[in-house]
Amino acid sequence: MPTVSVHIVTYNSAMDIKGCIESVLSQSFVPTEIVVVDNASTDGTREKLTYYSNIRIVLNDTNNGFAGAHNQAIRMTDSDYLLVLNPDVTLHPDYLLHLIQFMQSNPMFGTATGLLLRKGLNEEVDSVGITVHKNRRVFDRGAGKHPTLYQESAEVFGVSGAAALYRRAMVKEISWNGQFFDEDFFAYKEDVDVSWRAQLLGWKAYYLSDALAFHERGWKEGTRFSRPLFVRRLSYVNRYKMILKNDSWGHLLIHLPYVLPYEIASLGYALLKDPKLLVAWGDFFKKISELLSKRMWIQQQRKVNYKDIYKFFV
After folding, report:
1. How far apart are CA 66 and CA 43, in angstroms?
2. What are the residue boundaries of the structural domains of the chain, listed by start?
3. Deepest of 37, 156, 246, 259, by most Cβ within 10 A of its Cβ?
């Protein structure tokens, strides 16, 4: 039997963590271990974690972000597969079973996810994979639509990090200097970056409709300005880090009629409505040398034709 570790990163997740852990403990395919890395929560999350003696708990003194904390968990385990799970996700009891059965039978796939519904809105999709548009905007595939539209399982560009099963062999192969999730991203779009890198190195992703989970979105359902400024900055600048690392200059030029109008609109919006976003460019240029080194490594490792990747861009 393959081994599976479940990795959960918490940050002020007291409202959700109990339901998440209980759903993992109720899986019909029993995980080998559960690792929770807490990023310096102050809302009682840590007290709730003490109720569980059968999970490994890491208490960080500072917030290491989604990327850094998940990399900690990855280094702590050596299972055949690892399930990266948001603390606001609850799983159907057969979620892991369906994904493991698929992955065991399809070794060319490095990652898989199931049908994520919005918690409390069971007739509304949260995510069934990741979709990238030709203007390089990224969306959760199927978000807001009715789940009956996604009854058919399918190969996808990538998967959301909210409830993603990754094959350890892929994790090892596509990690750069021991980092699976790029810690320069801290949080936001790091799952898209991983998906793109995996595609370049020849690993496929799959959406399996039989696997069911529920995701509580929280503040993401509000207006843009309901998000903290540091979150808006990360989401804004990580788009460009992702493009610089993974994109093909040739295809970027081909898609310029889609990219340029969006970039003009995005810059105009930032200048007029949210000028504090532009401070994030300082971090981009500070790290550009390392980003270019990562790009060189990724492109040297590339195993597929670009056409096999850009067929997913809509």
Report:
1. 18
2. 4-221, 224-310
3. 37
Q: How far apart are CA 83 and CA 165, in angstroms?
A: 4
Rounded distance, CA 314 to CA 255, Å? 11
Does the domain at 4-221 match CATH 3.90.550.10? Answer given as: yes
Question: What is d(CA 193, CA 201) in angstroms, rounded to the nearest whole number?
Answer: 12
**129 token code pair:** 């994979």
Phi–psi pair at 255, nearest 5 degrees: -90, 10
SS (H, E, C) the chain: CCCEEEEEEECCCCCCHHHHHHHHHCCCCCCCEEEEEEECCCCCHHHHHCCCCCCEEEEECCCCHHHHHHHHHHHHCCCCEEEEECCCEEECCCHHHHHHHHHHHCCCEEEEEEEEEECCEEEEEEECCEEECCCCCEEECCCCCCHHHHCCCEEECECCCCEEEEEHHHHHHHCECCECCCCCCCCCCHHHHHHHHHHHCCCEEEEEEEEEEEECCHHHHCCHHHCCHHHHHHHHHHHHHHHHHHCCHHHHHHCHHHHHHHHHHHHHHHHHHCHHHHHHHHHHHHCHHHHHHHHHHHHHHCCCCHHHHHCCCC
Q: What distances in angstroms separate CA 94 from CA 24, 31, 55, 62, one per listed residue?
A: 10, 12, 20, 35
**What is the phi/psi pair of residue 117, to 5°?**
-105, 155
* Single-letter code of the amino acid located at 112: A
